[in-house]
Amino acid sequence: MSDYRSINRANWDERATAHAASPGYRVERFATDPAYLSEVVRFDLPRLGDVTGLRGVHLQCHIGTDTVSLSRLGARMTGLDFSGVSLEQARTVAARAGAEIDFVQSDVYRARDALDGEFDLVYTGIGALGWLPDIRRWATTVASLLAPGGRLFIREGHPILRACDYDRTDDVIALAEPYFEHVEPQVYDEPGTYVETDREFVHTVTHEWNHGLGEIVTAVLDAGLTLTGLVEHQSVPWNALPGRMRQLPDGEWQLADRPQRLPHTYTLQARKAG
């Protein structure tokens, strides 16, 4: 197993300030509009339901825009991330937004030791699971954090989308990357990042993993949780296949040609027995 934590942390540490300054994260909007919610959280409002008064933790929270959004919906939130620089930005975002949120630095697998008590809601947003090598260990960690009757809520990029051949420019959907979890990581060396910025980066290598949808569901069930919802979506919050996607009115992106061919993202919900 590679030293993926150090490699990936260097990548996220370097990008955190660029992300906070990018218009893609709309940090200024959080500061000026007390009702503003991130597009990711707003997309899932019909499935998220009322979170008022719930004690929630956002795993792999990055700079905290989704965490702040959940706080604005009434949850008492904690954010957790392994990047100290990301958490510095998250604390600034929360302070400017007027949100009282605790932010804790920890690798997600060590979250149980880093956090006190149990939670009514464990939330994980887009682009998180691909940084973790072992989906079963993740699910076990989630179960350990949940209070009886507590809920897991996750929206994530679909593993089929993550397995696509990103270099194609025609209308053929081809799979080039692993769909199933495997021991060795997928190693990428990408100079930029997924939001608009003119920054140049030094730490460009990342180690990532895909996890099949069946593997994710099975891990959640084996951790003792009950699956309560699984919805596959025909849109994704970023331009995942450049040159082949169109932007929708809600800010999401969709395959331009016959989007029903491809599951773009999914929302999964599960509960711990009460």
UniProtKB/TrEMBL annotation:
Q: Where is the Methyltransferase domain?
A: 60-150
Could you tell me which species this protein originates from? Actinoplanes teichomyceticus
Does the keyword Methyltransferase belong to this entry? yes
Alphabetically sorted, this entry's keywords are:
Methyltransferase, Transferase
Q: Name one GO biological process term.
A: methylation
Q: Which GO MF terms does the UniProt record name?
A: methyltransferase activity
Highest taxon in the source lineage: Bacteria
SUPFAM superfamilies membership? S-adenosyl-L-methionine-dependent methyltransferases
Answer yes or no on keyword Transcription regulation: no
What is the name of the protein in this document? Methyltransferase family protein
Do you know which Gene3D superfamilies this protein is assigned to? Vaccinia Virus protein VP39
Matching InterPro entries: Methyltransf_25, SAM-dependent_MTases_sf
